[in-house]
Amino acid sequence: MQPLFDRILLLKRVPFFALLRTDQLRHIVPMLEPAGWASGERVFEKGDPSDRMYILLSGRVGIVLHDDPESTEYVAQLGHGDCFGEMGLLDDLPRSATVHVLETVEALSLSRVRLHGMLQAYPELGIGMLAALSGRLREANDARIKSRHLADNPK
Prior knowledge:
By secondary structure, the chain is of the alpha+beta class. Helices cover 36% and strands 27% of the residues. It is globular. Pfam families: cNMP_binding.
């Protein structure tokens, strides 16, 4: 188990929590639960129920958007300090991707139920999380616009 300070530093790297103050992150750390998978396993498949996010402590995963869970067309590979599944904390929609374990993973998880309880007790946490999500949405929009511009104006 990592000391409190190490976990706070880890959470500071996670975009979903990056804008929260250290004193706010102290409320999240006790809500984190250990999780892990062996190489070759799947954390979840596209369409599965979505109720928690994961923060990688070690190992690597590959993210697949294809409907076929056997596909290995990774749109991203994630490692230490990266997170996935955070959309599942905010909505009741099924998983939007399949996550393959490429190297044995040790992770921390946060469930929707725990997050919602924490937000009811400490509503100011939600403001920082919403600001972080807004920033990620702006980045995605900028990338999309840039991609569209490059497609419309090939050199």
